[in-house]
Amino acid sequence: MEREQKFKELVETTWIQFPKIGLYCEKETSYHKVFCKVQTVLSVHKLSEYLGIPIFLFGPHSKYYLERNHPYEFGHYNPEFPKKLREYLLPAKQSSKFFLITKPIYEEWIKQTAREFFIVYQKLDSNPQFFRKEADRYLMLVDESRLDPFYLDRFILFLYPAYTDNEDPEEASKFKVFPGDEKMDSQIVKELVGFWIRRKADGTEIEFITGLLELLRLYDSEFYESRTNTK
Fold first, then answer.
1. Which pTM was predicted?
2. What is the rounded (10 degree) CA torsion for 158, 160, 164, 165?
3. Contacting residues for 202 by C-beta, under 8 A, at least 6 apart
4. Using 50, 70 and 90 to split pLDDT, how confident is the model at 231?
């Protein structure tokens, strides 16, 4: 289809031109910088048109505007959205030449964000019971309009080895820990914990992490292997 071909070409162009787009986004940090640059190329509304599906099933977002600071609601992604994205976002899977061109771009602009999303997810996923409990609690607070604006501050130290959700060692949740993860910016940590809790809550967690793992295996295989090697 013509629409799909145009989107494919846009994705390829955006990869190659990524260092040059949205130069005003340089003041942002971590994933905020990446998303800022992407949004200079493609709005949520236009992305929805290209993919032929709504991005969100429901939530505070409008057709043209992403509401990032709603006091108690959040956008529930359409499960088809991350599935569709995976069809287009990694042209390098089909082209070794494109991979060689974009590998330095990944290294400079994407790697930190991809790793941060994975690191936070991996620790959450290392304790499925805790992950599910926190997602259910978040949903309950949202449903009852009781979500405190500073609710996610409780996760600022989430990546520290000593992080605990209970003072009683016998009751505290246990996680898999990787040395050095605690060096990540604490504000980014809490935001990414919030992202993954919401994805667990809206049922799109598996689709999003599947796409992220494809990205890491392709562009960051050494990191991926070091974090997932069970030997």
1. 0.92
2. -10
3. 57, 74, 76, 77
4. low
